[in-house]
Amino acid sequence: MSYCASRFHTVRRRTVEVMVGSVGVGGSHPVRIQSMTTSDTHDVTATVKQSIALAEVGCEIVRITAPNVAAAKCLKDIRAQFSAAGFGHIPLVADIHFLPSAAMEAVEHVEKVRVNPGNYADKKKFAVKEYTEADYVEELERLHETFSPLVRRAKELGRSMRIGTNHGSLSDRIMNRYGDTPLGMVESALEFLRIARSHDYHQLILSMKASNPKVMIQAYRLLVQRMVQEDMHYPLHLGVTEAGDGEDGRIKSAIGIGSLLLDGLGDTIRVSLTEDSVYEIPVAQSIAKKAMSLWNTSRPSATSLLLVDAINPYHFERRVTTTLALSDQCRVGPEQPPRVIVRVGSVTELAAAREALASPRLTDTPAEGLLVPINAVSDLEVVGAATARGDAGPPKNFGFEFLALELATTLTPATLAPLLTHSEVRLLLVRAFNANESELLKQFLLVARQNRHFLAAEISPESFPAHESVLRELGHANLVFTLTSAGSPPSASHATGAYRQLVERLRAVGSAAPIWIRNTSGTAVQGEPSFLSKLLEASFLSGGLLCDGVGDFISMETETDVTRATKLAYNVLQGAGARISKTEFVACPSCGRTLFDLQSTTQRIRAQTGHLKGVKIAIMGCIVNGPGEMADADFGYVGGAPGKINLYVGKNCVQYNLPQAEADGRLIALIREHGKWVDPSPHHAANS
Ligand code: SF4
């Protein structure tokens, strides 16, 4: 049973409508945008001020933490003052961890309560214990007793509730039974969901957040699959937790949220950034707008070329491909990270691009291939001179590993022959083939193979059947497949769907050729000139496919600045966990529980440790979502008490209550002790 109506079209998942105050979520409502205040909830004036700031930039639902009963009581005044300021229509949500008593107080004052099933009524002890079936049933009975009063009161008052699972704070009961897995996250929510339903209470929204987009995507998919099995249709709140800040935080959020929205899942979203919360809103709005432009309410017709694909959506496995050697240093294949190609506007810009890309700042993030349009024989001559001439120094000093030549349709295999024979750099010929060009496809591939070069063929899902017999005959040697547009219905309504069609088509002809994900204006859901739009589109397409195990090359062709395009490609690869080129930071967005200034601390730690490629550092305002959320972090910097920091190595707290002034130095000392420190290179030092 699938989690969505189509993996090729965006068919919005049918859900019940849940009212959060006067704001409808799910059903026929648009994707609702929400965020959270970061002030201390006891400071009513500051919290009202932040709520107003959020509402004024378009936040439709505002969440406020209620860490204890006293804070929950403050919600009464916050609600009153927020309404008096003219925002009575914007619902408030109390964020509860641990304390049922705080939830019981909060539900009296605000429109919705979020409970974390991992710690509601469960003091997390990280205890390893075998739960027998009888123990488990007993635990569920205890849970029923503890959670039921809140459900009954929410029902009486007409409040809604979010059962908000976090990967990092699963109960010991769940951890011991299912482990730290998407399945455990789903079961954690289902325990609470069943209790709510036993009281015939249905004003429920669910979430499955994780800092790792792959885990988050799988958990939401699994949750929907399980809900469908049990005929439950509650709306989803989507978010990637602890995504961090800047480009990285936006990319991680867009990968997770965007992938699910493209599959028709998601009714309200929060983009969590370690920045002032108002900056989250335009990002969330842009993501929602793009996804909603694709909404379709009916299942695609049976005329669709394919209705299902064979990728397991609940378990990550990289697609197995052949291995291509594009240079001595640059191989492509299942054992290799996805390779980065950068597009240059024309052959006349090649020299400038080489110079820009040779910057020492790109040492850890090199452009491995350069894509250049070839419109005429004269362009071939320029490339020929550059790739064969001694002073250009190919291949060692060429600046990148291979050249991709995007061929105009007027160029024939014969016109390419001299270049292919003499080039000292490996060439990847790039050409689109219509349904009636099978013979030409064969000729291009044969001429490329003859000279140990490669062909990247663009074949739309619609015309693929016409090429099947020639592709079977030719096999996959020296061949790559790519797309530059979403194709046209009925095969797919977005580029992710078109690439999934391509994967299935290749599987059907037995081809293990690598796939190049090209982000172009034609693959965009809603292309816009802003960098944010380009970043979001790249995250949707490349990030989403990489999280499904698809993609051996990527290129960001909507960005014309070659340095920026290269950086964006590496950041998307890092966000999807497909290629790690720098330190990975897991930073919470901060909230009223935060015990130190997260934004400045994150920036300070990043400045000192951002060069530690492959090291993962978690920076958390408090321990609510950790150390589970830091499960795969190497080091953790966590608020222990006001102004006091606890340091972790993996899941273990190794230093308690350090004054913040000492904590940075101690963190670096710990990194050194564990052999993960290297001194920054001069260009890193200059950049920081
Ligand atoms: S980890 Fe950060 S966002 Fe989460 S509750 Fe603690 S301070 Fe708030």
Helices and strands in order, then pairings?
Blueprint: E1 18-20, E2 23-25, E3 32-36, H1 44-56, E4 61-65, H2 69-87, E5 92-96, H3 100-106, E6 112-115, H4 133-157, E7 160-166, H5 172-178, H6 182-198, E8 204-209, H7 213-229, E9 237-238, H8 246-262, E10 268-269, H9 280-292, E11 324-325, E12 331-332, E13 339-343, H10 350-357, E14 369-374, H11 377-388, E15 402-407, H12 413-422, E16 426-432, H13 438-450, E17 454-458, H14 464-474, E18 479-483, H15 495-508, E19 515-519, H16 531-547, E20 553-556, H17 562-575, E21 584-587, H18 598-609, E22 616-620, E23 635-641, E24 644-649, E25 652-659, H19 660-673, H20 682-687
Parallel strand pairs: 3-4, 3-10, 4-5, 5-6, 6-7, 7-8, 9-10, 13-14, 13-20, 14-15, 15-16, 16-17, 17-18, 18-19, 19-20, 21-22, 22-23
Antiparallel strand pairs: 1-2, 11-12, 23-24, 24-25
Helix pairs in contact: 1-2, 2-3, 4-6, 5-6, 6-7, 7-8, 8-9, 8-16, 8-17, 11-12, 12-13, 13-14, 15-16, 16-17
The structure holds iron/sulfur cluster.
Give the structure's gist in a few sentences:
With 688 residues, the chain is of the alpha/beta class. It contains 20 helices and 25 strands.
Which characteristics define this entry?
about 40% helix; single chain; alpha/beta; binds iron/sulfur cluster; eight-stranded parallel beta sheet; about 700 residues
